[in-house]
Amino acid sequence: MSHTCPLCASDNFADFHQDKRRRYFRCGHCFLVFVDPASFLSADEEKAIYQQHENSPDDVGYRQFLSRIAEPLHKCMPSAQSGLDFGCGPGPTLSLMLEDKGHSVALYDPFFVPDGAALNKTYDFVTCTEAIEHFHYPKREWGQLISLIKPGGWLALMTKLVKDAEAFSRWHYKNDPTHVSFFSRETFRFLADRDGLDVDFVGNDVILLRKKTA
Ligand SMILES: [Zn+2]
Q1: Does Cell cycle count among this protein's keywords (predicted)?
Q2: In CATH, what number is assigned to the domain containing residue 131?
Q3: Residue 87 — left, alpha, or beta (φ > 0 → left; ψ -120 to 50 → alpha)?
């Protein structure tokens, strides 16, 4: 077990929950809930699980799920913009939905579209849906997300949010072994304040952040 929070590097964290498989901690500074790195899957094990996900652009239910982020993000943008879908997975779909609305969207995924060149640019918007809960090194990966966004640009996230320890103990979301970093409203408020972002919780699991211009 490392001795600092993997998101904010504080050493102020404590046990939060324990189940049959894993031990969970919560940071007292940024309120991230995280697992003991000893329970991380290997990259091969992780990829094998993602390949079983049956998300595809032909799935009407998946499109409806993603419309909860595509619609509010599109409304924020007055004209066609260029973006990146970070963590697009094996069946990129949100990118197609935003392209249907006139935007252009590049793809990056560490397992399925490992195009490092996509990370050497900046964008008007970055989307990251059902992906940040998989971050093993959220300090580095969050920093990377923020660095990809132009001043005044948008970061649109989907991830389910931690409420409290009691709800956490009954939460199916924690049982996915690829889920290792659990964010809450408090965590996003901390990050927004620290990193110069405005944050808007537009749904239970939909978060829109905007990088301030100055
Ligand atoms: Zn922390």
Answers
A1: no
A2: 3.40.50.150
A3: left
pLDDT for 1 beyond 80: no
In a domain, 2, yes or no: no
pLDDT reading at 209 higher than 90: yes
Residue 58 CA to ligand 1 centre (angstroms): 39
Domain annotation covers residue 1: no
83 CA from centroid of ligand 1 (Å): 28
Structural domains of the chain, count: 1
Residue 87 has pLDDT above 80, yes or no: yes
Ligand 1 centre and the CA of 90: distance in Å?
A: 30
Q: What's the CA dihedral at 29, 31, 36, 37 to 10 degrees?
A: -80
Task: Note the pLDDT tens digit of each residue in 150-159.
Answer: 999 999 999 9
Ligand 1 mean position, distance from CA 179 (Å): 17
The candidate with the shortest Cα–Cα distance to 47, out of 2, 115, 114, is: 114
Cα(12) to centroid(ligand 1), Å: 8
The range of the structural domain enclosing residue 206 comes to 13-211
Give me ligand 1 centre to Cα 27, in Å: 5
In the reported structure, the alpha carbon of residue 88 is separated from the centroid of ligand 1 by a whole-number distance in angstroms of 26
State the virtual CA torsion across 180, 44, 148, 146 in degrees, nearest 10.
Answer: 10
Residue 145 in any domain: the answer is yes
In the structure, ligand 1 is a single-atom ion and the residues with CB under 5 Å from it are 5, 7-8, 10, 27, 29-30, 32
Judged by DSSP in three states, 101 sits in coil
